[in-house]
């Protein structure tokens, strides 16, 4: 294993915890540029293919209507009305396709950049053979050195290196990838900047992370989500109902002595069926995915994004998510009978090989405050290092017949108790730990993490004192959790820390609940319990330990810096490896659902008004009394029908920016949001056409020959 030539410490993973702008939006994201409409025009025409159109039944009906009215117009070439209606019906279909094309267009540029990262890598296998990156198989071991582009996805099995992941994250600062830990996954297409690593390939060529990212941002892998399918069925049913209703009109009109042309019937049908939402539905879904991509989150399915919108329980890690995560040693506190320097010395000794941020901070504090110099590995030949694990909650060293341990109070006390057996000096049993307990409880009550330091030597096993680890709750957490609460989401903090510390931090941060001394099994059990109560659960994770829970959660966000297992198990990956992102993901999911709901409401409401424009127009000649329904006072039957058709088409384009950007979103309960949106978009949907159609009618009446 080569030593890293970079000075970047592993916890300085540059992307982790990168500050996002206050509103969570990257510059440029969500902005709508009218030029996109023009750029997407060719795609909009391509989508006129009936095999593509049939996937949106509402718009397919409009397409058929356009063909019918066009055929009719060819038969009656002198009928300007038929031609105009046909033209606007074609525009309606085109506008719908345009909405989808614009939504897709935003991912295309990103896909292009990604493709560039992919082309032509070669892989050097450990056995010395060189093969093209496309011929790698799962399990192959490849060597990557400074300057190499990593040929495929995998886990580092040997070495540590700094890697430039800007090809996928857009972030130029290098990150550390190393074997063994929760930072072992590497992505094909990223570049090794220093050192040498051996990577075990975990995905087949063509199915790599970048391949998946490309199909994702291009929308190629997009499938309708369950909610979209349900809504599509509703829209199709409405369409069939209106189709039947319109079909009964000719006999009825015949009977009354009125004559209804194909053009008028098609125009009526198109105005009544929910074309607005039919046209915008897929754009809304794509835009939701895109909003996630803009924040460097990749969802494997639209379903995951939707689930994020329905989540009612959020599991958040304490360290690094709610707190800053650089938990540092702040003081060494001796129990009566030992000195501070003794505690510092033992603490430092136990931490010399402890690469966790906590371990390194202990070494630093002992050096700074107590002038203890770092002992070199050479002086400690024969030492057996005990690495920290979340399960044992301890770390330490066995050297020169002396065993030193530091760790969570319960673990260290158990370790000492196991050792001194019947020794006289510990005859008081658990009470012997009273002094230590008092110290740890005091630290924990302030939200600090106490680590007990203990030794076993010729004098027996005993607790020496306590290390006070300090961590700081991130700014603005209380407000964020307040927002989540208003949305009706319960937040649960999960930590391996003791219950007292957990309680103090939970109170300070304002989470609803906490789970202390949590093992991976506890996490899993918690998720299952919440789900059994019919709730959707979201969580983040990075370790192999987290994989089962990530898979079980409805929304499992894996950190890009984490292990391949975690990334495989979750249904989202955060390229920035920022666990706080989960909160934004939920907001994006909610916004997606709300946007879809709002535009559906608007669509159905705005069709009602068209009724009042068209029905009186149809029967004005035979039933003059119906003219009372003509509350808009439209100038003529032809103008009324045409105005309604034109409005019906234009409203689609007018709403494209809203569909892409999402409706304005505030953290309130789903109930209040629903009521508010019914009021705004329902009422708006009712009123807008009255105004719009009247205006168009006025404009049309200026054209000679109409009205
Ligand atoms: N380097 C270490 N050496 C010894 N003990 C440690 C070390 N780091 C942490 N501990 C102890 O182990 C406990 C569990 O740590 P772990 O990292 O699993 O959870 P955590 O960081 O407290 O919470 P989170 O789940 O949010 O990461 C800590 O509360 C602490 O008491
Ligand atoms: K309509
Ligand atoms: Mg931890």
From TrEMBL:
Catalytic activity as recorded in UniProt: K(+)(out) + ATP + H2O = K(+)(in) + ADP + phosphate + H(+)
InterPro entries for this protein: ATPase_P-typ_cyto_dom_N, ATPase_P-typ_P_site, ATPase_P-typ_TM_dom_sf, ATPase_P-typ_transduc_dom_A_sf, ATPase_P-type_domA, HAD-like_sf, HAD_sf, P-type_ATPase_bsu_IA
Gene Ontology CC annotations of this record: plasma membrane
Binding site for Mg(2+): 542, 546
Positions with a binding annotation for ATP: 354, 358, 388-395, 406
Protein keywords: ATP-binding, Cell membrane, Ion transport, Magnesium, Membrane, Metal-binding, Nucleotide-binding, Phosphoprotein, Potassium, Potassium transport, Translocase, Transmembrane, Transmembrane helix, Transport
UniProt keyword annotation of Membrane present: yes
Top-rank lineage group of the source organism: Bacteria
Record-linked CDD domains: P-type_ATPase_K
Top-level class of the enzyme under EC nomenclature: translocase
Main location: membrane
Record domain P-type ATPase A: where: 120-218
Gene Ontology molecular function, alphabetical: ATP binding; ATP hydrolysis activity; magnesium ion binding; P-type potassium transmembrane transporter activity
Family: Belongs to the cation transport ATPase (P-type) (TC 3.A.3) family. Type IA subfamily.
Protein name: Potassium-transporting ATPase ATP-binding subunit
Organism: Streptomyces antibioticus
């Amino acid at each position: 294993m080569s030593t890293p030539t970079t000075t970047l410490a592993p916890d300085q993973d540059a992307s982790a915890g990168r500050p996002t702008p206050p509103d969570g939006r990257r510059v440029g994201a969500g902005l709508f540029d009218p030029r996109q409409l023009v750029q997407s025009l060719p795609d909009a025409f391509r989508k006129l293919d009936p095999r593509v159109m049939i996937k949106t039944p509402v718009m397919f009906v409009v397409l058929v209507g356009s063909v019918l009215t066009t055929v009719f117009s060819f038969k009656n070439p002198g009928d300007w009305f038929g031609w105009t209606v046909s033209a606007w019906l074609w525009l309606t279909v085109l506008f719908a396709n345009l909405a989808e094309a614009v939504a897709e267009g935003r991912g295309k540029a990103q896909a292009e950049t990604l493709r560039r990262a992919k082309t032509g890598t070669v892989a050097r296998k450990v056995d010395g053979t060189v093969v093209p990156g496309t011929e790698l198989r799962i399990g192959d071991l490849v060597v990557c050195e400074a300057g190499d582009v990593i040929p495929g996805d995998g886990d580092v099995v040997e070495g540590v290196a700094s890697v430039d992941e800007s090809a996928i994250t857009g972030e130029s600062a290098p990150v550390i990838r190393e074997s063994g830990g929760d930072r072992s996954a590497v992505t094909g297409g990223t570049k090794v900047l220093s050192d040498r690593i051996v990577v075990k390939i975990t995905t087949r060529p063509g199915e790599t992370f970048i391949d998946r990212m490309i199909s994702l941002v291009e929308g190629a892998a997009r499938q309708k989500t369950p909610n979209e399918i349900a809504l599509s069925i509703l829209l199709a049913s409405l369409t069939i109902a209106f189709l039947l209703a319109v079909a009964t009109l000719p006999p009825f009109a015949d009977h009354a002595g009125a004559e209804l042309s194909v053009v008028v019937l098609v125009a009526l049908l198109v105005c009544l069926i929910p074309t607005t939402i039919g046209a915008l539905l897929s754009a809304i879904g794509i835009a939701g995915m895109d909003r996630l991509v803009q924040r460097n989150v990749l969802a494997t399915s639209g379903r995951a994004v939707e689930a994020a919108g329905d989540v009612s329980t959020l599991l958040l890690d304490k360290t690094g998510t709610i707190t800053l995560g650089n938990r540092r040693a702040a003081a060494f506190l001796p129990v009566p009978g030992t000195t501070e320097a003794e505690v510092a010395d033992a603490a430092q000794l136990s931490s010399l090989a402890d690469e966790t941020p906590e371990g390194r901070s202990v070494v630093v504090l002992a050096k700074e405050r107590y002038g203890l110099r770092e002992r070199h590995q050479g002086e400690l030949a024969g030492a057996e290092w005990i690495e920290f694990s979340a399960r044992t909650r301890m770390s330490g060293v066995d050297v020169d017949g002396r065993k030193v341990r530091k760790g969570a109070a319960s673990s260290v006390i158990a370790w000492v108790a196991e050792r001194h057996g019947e020794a006289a000096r510990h005859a008081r049993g658990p009470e012997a730990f009273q002094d230590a307990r008092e110290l740890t409880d005091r630290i924990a009550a302030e939200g600090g993490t106490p680590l007990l330091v203990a030794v076993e030597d010729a004098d027996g096993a005993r607790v020496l004192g306590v290390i006070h680890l300090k961590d700081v709750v991130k700014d603005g957490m209380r407000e964020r959790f307040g927002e989540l609460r208003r949305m009706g989401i319960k937040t649960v903090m999960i930590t391996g820390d003791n219950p007292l510390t957990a309680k103090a931090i939970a109170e300070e941060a304002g989470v609803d609940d906490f789970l202390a001394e949590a093992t991976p099994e506890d996490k899993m059990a918690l998720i299952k319990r919440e789900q059994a109560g019919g709730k959707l659960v979201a969580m983040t994770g990075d370790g192999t330990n987290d994989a089962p829970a990530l898979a079980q959660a409805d929304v499992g966000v894996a950190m890009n810096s984490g292990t391949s297992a975690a990334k495989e198990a979750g249904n989202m990956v955060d390229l920035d490896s920022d666990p706080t992102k989960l909160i934004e993901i939920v907001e994006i999911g909610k916004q997606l659902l709300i946007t879809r709901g709002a535009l559906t409401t608007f669509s159905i409401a705005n069709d009602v008004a068209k009724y009042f424009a068209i029905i009186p127009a149809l029967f004005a000649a035979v039933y003059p009394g119906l003219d009372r329904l003509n509350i808009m006072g439209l100038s003529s039957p032809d103008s009324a029908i045409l105005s309604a058709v034109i409005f019906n088409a234009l409203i689609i384009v007018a709403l494209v920016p809203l569909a892409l950007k999402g409706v304005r979103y505030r953290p309130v309960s789903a109930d209040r949001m629903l009521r508010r949106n019914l009021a705004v978009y329902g009422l708006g949907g009712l009123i807008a056409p009255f105004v719009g159609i009247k205006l168009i009618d006025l404009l049309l009446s200026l054209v000679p020959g109409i009205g």
